[in-house]
Write a structure and sequence with these properties.
The chain is α/β, with parallel strands linked by helices. About 45% of the residues lie in helices and about 15% in strands. It binds nicotinamide-adenine-dinucleotide. Nicotinamide-adenine-dinucleotide binds next to helix 1, helix 5, strand 5 and strand 7.
Length: about 350
């Protein structure tokens, strides 16, 4: 069975590709990725050799309808798992149009190719989405699948638009679409502009760790492997036209995350984990910074049997170790463009 994984050279997608190839021997995986600043072939190193005949990489832009339709013709996929996206909120504030193009037009292009290709065949489209489509919460409550969409940033608005298109293709054309909405992921191969790897790289470089506002914003965290376990379950057990929230019931303030990282990093370097705040600098909050996200995964637990397995403290410790052991990997992805971006967002 052929399965197309878009965005498979990115953080979550590459972890998914490895999990799918090792756990689903009957699948042949075709990674479709445009290799933007966030896509990195090194994330897929060794797969060609280990899984020869069951793995293909195709460089293509999901918004390029000719390229996508050709891939559907060549590969006749039974499943599309759509991870490809412009994914960073801060970048969506600096340049929203890339988000509209990839996340909205790109998703529409894939949905339409699937509609044409699956006219008389079975096929499932898994739309990977985010809890950010629900907007922000106050101090209590959690997002359920019935929470109205109220995105705050161009990123989350573009993801909400993509989700609505996916649902419309289900209602209008009967396309078998399932949507998963997940909270903040962490783990290996995450681009070093996202909170956890960014803070680790700053520490290794001997720089202070910049925290937005007062650091009290709350995010709900999940290890990337648990997210991908949920995606596999949604592919295999999800009901057509349904949305499933994926989360691990793990809310943390940003400042607590940074302090936990500092403890792990100082200990790893053989230094006393004291006076943590002397390593932190508070910077001006970003516009439209959502206060709190918390996701209620009850439906996925009930209907899919979803159970996260990685405890946050263990997952964070392993993640820190991975970035310390794979410094060459994150130094390689820190391109010139990335450095410009960091200075635009955080100042020189
Ligand atoms: N990172 C998180 O915490 C999180 C949480 C919930 C949902 N998500 C969703 O999961 C998906 C993957 O997120 P991620 O953190 O791995 O992102 P990422 O930025 O690490 O990777 C995105 C990948 O998509 C590729 N891509 C971008 N534009 C493309 C285009 N036009 N055509 C083809 N490929 C393109 C990039 O090259 C890259 O490989 C996204 O849809 C995101 O919205 C992420």
């Amino acid at each position: 069975m052929n399965i197309i994984v878009t965005g498979g050279a990115g953080f979550i997608g590459s972890n998914f590709v490895r999990m799918a190839l090792s756990q689903r021997p009957e699948w042949r995986v075709i990674v479709v990725d445009a290799l933007t600043y966030a896509g990195n072939l090194e994330n897929l190193d060794g797969l060609e050799k280990t899984y020869s005949g069951r793995y293909r990489f195709a460089k293509a832009d999901v918004a390029d309808s000719a390229a996508i339709e050709k891939l559907f013709e060549q590969e006749s996929p039974s499943i599309v798992v759509h991870f490809a996206a412009e994914s960073h909120v801060d970048r969506s504030v600096l340049g929203p149009m890339d988000f509209v193009r990839t996340n909205v037009l790109g998703t529409a292009t894939l949905l339409d190719a699937a509609r044409k290709s699956w006219r008389d065949k079975a096929g499932r489209f898994l739309q990977i989405s985010t809890d950010e489509v629900y907007g922000a919460l106050g101090d209590t409550g959690a997002f359920t699948e019935a929470t109205p969409l109220a995105p705050s940033s161009p990123y989350s608005a573009s993801k909400a638009s993509a989700d609505l298109l996916a649902l419309a293709y289900h209602k209008t054309f009967g396309l078998d679409v399932v949507i998963t909405r997940c909270c903040n992921n962490y783990g290996p191969y995450q681009f070093p502009e996202k909170l956890i790897p960014f803070m680790i790289s700053r520490f290794v470089d001997g720089e202070k760790l910049p925290v937005y506002g007062n650091g009290m914003n709350v995010r709900d965290w999940i290890h990337v492997e648990d997210h991908n376990r949920g995606v596999l379950l949604a592919i295999e057990k999800g009901r057509p036209g349904e949305v499933y929230n994926l989360g691990a019931r793990c809310e943390r303030n940003n400042i607590d995350i940074v302090r936990s990282l500092l403890k792990l990093l100082l200990t790893a370097k053989g230094k006393p984990a004291v006076d943590l705040d002397s390593h932190i600098t508070f910077v001006k909050d970003r516009p439209g910074h959502d206060w709190r996200y918390a996701i209620d995964p009850s439906k996925a637990e009930r209907e899919l049997g979803f159970r996260p397995e990685v405890r946050f403290e263990e997952g964070l410790a392993k993640t820190v170790q991975w970035y310390l052991e794979n410094e060459k990997w994150w130094r390689d992805v820190q391109s010139g463009a990335y450095r410009d971006y960091v200075s635009k967002v955080y100042g020189a």
